[in-house]
Amino acid sequence: MVSLEPKASCAICSLHGDEAELTSHEVWRSDLWLLRHHPCPAPLTGWCLLDSRRHIGGPMNFAPDEARQWGDVVQRASQLIREVTGCDRVYAIAFGEGARHLHLHLIPRSGDDPRTSAWKIADLYRDVEVGKAKAASIERVDDWLLRARVLAPAFLS
Ligand SMILES: [Zn+2]
What we know:
- The chain has 157 residues and is α+β, with helices and mostly antiparallel strands.
- 41% of the residues lie in helices and 17% in strands.
- The protein has a single domain (27-156), classed as 2-Layer Sandwich (HIT family, subunit A).
- Zinc ion is lined by residues 7, 10, 12-13, 55, 101.
């Protein structure tokens, strides 16, 4: 049985209840979804997470309205990220292991950055996490967020 209530032990439910933290990284939200930039240290400028507002493990647990909206919101969020970042493509990856709460990684892929090619992106992620590679600068992430928030209503509303 899937719990529909926020879980106290879930990092993403806790984040969704932390308005101060959300203010620094949120791009957009609706009643079902929340789009946010990866917190610092961010592997890349424009690396975002699309969360379900409900505590669910993944698409397998969607309610009918979540299932109907999912394709549309993933497409529009990806288009927003491509527009703001100027990347070629946007990868979509969801494991749901670090937190068992759906958080789809939407990752800007640039042809001129070999670190962002397929599974090399996982190496970059781990290297930034342990301090072996440089994270995106806070100034660039903040600038990205300002531009994304201006454009978000045109893409996601
Ligand atoms: Zn949760």
